[in-house]
Amino acid sequence: MINPCRIGFLIGTCPPSFSNFSTDEDEFEETDGSAVYGHTLLIQRPSTVEWTPNLVSLVSFISTVDWYPIILRNMGGDFVCYTLLYARNPHDSNRWFRIQVETWDDMAKLCFQHLKPNDHTYVSGHLESYFKVSSKGNPKSSYKIIANGLHYIAQHDHRPGCQSPE
Question: How far is Cα 130 from Cα 149, in angstroms, rounded to an integer?
Fold first, then answer.
């Protein structure tokens, strides 16, 4: 249930998602814009895009490879590669999820050859749901990404990085 709140004098009682919201005009000037322009950005309606099938369930996120990829060849001769990615909330390390990623043909071969566990990746593609049967025989809804883009993430700090470009 959504708890309505008034921005301004009730900011302390807002749900956590609104707790960092500010209407302070000084913040707009810090971003090299006028307060009027900044206020307009806050209240204007988002832009509209035309519906196209390629935008349906489009997702992208940064994650870590959790399993070695598995490659298969279907009856039609196409290659398909599966792996599991691990993603966590950057603001709360206790919140995370795993999601299956599926790649096809040339991208499948590339992923199979180069991806390994703990590689940091940027994945984009379409989110799909499917049902699988649990060990108790109950159907369970799961999700996977049909990837159309997968890239390594360069690490600029002292943590272990991704696989070297070579």
Answer: 21
Most distant CA pair in the chain: distance in Å? 64
Determine how β-strand 139-152 pairs with β-strand 92-104.
parallel
Backbone angles phi, psi at 7, to 5 degrees: -75, 135
Burial 130-158, CB ≥16 within 10 A → b, else e: eeeeeeeeeeeeeebbbbeebebeeeeee
What radius of gyration, in Å, describes the C-alpha atoms of the chain?
Answer: 21
**pTM here?**
0.62
pLDDT in the model for residue 12: 41
Six-digit token pair at 96? 């995370």
Q: pLDDT tens digits for 81-93?
A: 999 999 888 888 8
Which of 37, 33, 7 is CA-nearest to residue 21?
7
The half-sphere exposure of 1 on its side-chain side, counting CA atoms within 13 A, is: 1
Q: Which are the contacts of 74, defined by CB distance < 8 A and separation ≥ 6?
A: 80
| Closest by CA position to 124, among listed 96, 150, 93 | 150
